[in-house]
Write a structure and sequence with these properties.
about 270 residues, mainly alpha, MetI-like fold, two-stranded antiparallel sheet
Length: about 270
């Protein structure tokens, strides 16, 4: 009888510790964005202070932040759509058809995720230079899709494998083509995989820094590169950097909150084998 409350207490302690460990850096970032310069650099750190919005004003009005935000949104949105569409089609082929060297090709796709990003910077730069895609949205989108596609394919293969083939056969007997059966039957049942793949692709493209730094320029600069630009010759502008980073987090939070209900619905509404 005594083990129950102790076990519950330990569980809540562990959960609370993990939450503090996870959320405290976010708290520190947000509070740093609304501190004055004197409070921000004061020692010991001030836990109670009067918030100011000067750093947000500088970020929003002293630089073309809206243009950079639009660049990131275009690149992340196109990357998400492209990786989900191409990944779903490729994963469906691997799940439903067996062809020569299909297992080897699946492993090769997974192998591309193991290549260090830094080893690909120069080949991508030279390729985009020869194609005239440097400092363009298209160049960034193509590069980012290549990063998100292997994960999307492997993730969607597992979800397609869980959808009974008999449902597609029944749809084709009723007059659907294979493509229509995929769109009307299989994809709705694999909705959780689509949502997770979309979230991953969006986060990868929204937060990418290295390739954005190399492949972008004045016209296609994205927000991670902008945040790094606050590290000046006289030192980092911590308040401006924190304000920009806080603004960058907002789309990720909004997207996760909006899509969360679709993940739950997909997990509770689908086909079950047997």
């Amino acid at each position: 009888m005594k083990a129950g409350p102790i076990r519950e207490g330990l569980k809540y302690l562990c959960v609370g510790t993990i939450l503090v460990w996870t959320l405290f850096p976010i708290y520190w970032l947000v509070t740093a964005s609304v501190k004055s310069e004197i409070v921000l650099y004061g020692t010991p750190p001030a836990w109670w202070f009067r918030p100011v919005l000067e750093s947000y004003a500088r970020v929003l009005f002293n630089i073309p932040f809206s243009s950079y935000f639009l660049n990131s949104l275009i690149v992340a949105g196109a990357t998400t759509v492209g990786s989900v569409i191409l990944g779903s089609l490729a994963a469906y082929g691997f799940s439903r058809f067996t062809f020569w060297w299909s297992e080897g090709l699946r492993f090769f796709i997974l192998l591309t995720r193991m290549i260090p990003r830094v080893a690909l910077v120069m080949p991508y730069f030279l390729m985009m230079l020869s194609l005239g895609l440097l400092d363009t949205h298209a160049g960034l989108i193509l590069a980012y899709i290549s990063f998100a596609l292997p994960f999307s394919i492997w993730l969607m293969i597992g979800f397609f494998d869980e959808v009974p083939v008999e449902l597609e056969d029944a749809a084709m007997v009723d007059g659907c083509s294979r493509l229509m059966a995929l769109l009307r039957v299989t994809l709705p049942l694999a909705a959780p995989g689509l949502v997770v793949a979309a979230i991953f692709a969006f986060l990868v493209s929204w937060n990418e820094f290295l390739f954005a730094l190399i492949l972008s320029g004045i016209r296609s600069k994205t927000l991670p590169v902008v945040i790094a630009g606050f590290n000046t010759d006289i030192g980092p502008l911590y308040s401006d950097m924190s304000a920009a980073a806080t603004l960058v987090m907002i789309p990720n939070i909004v997207m996760t909150v909006l899509i969360q209900k679709h993940v739950v619905r997909g997990l509770t509404f689908g086909a079950v084998r047997g």
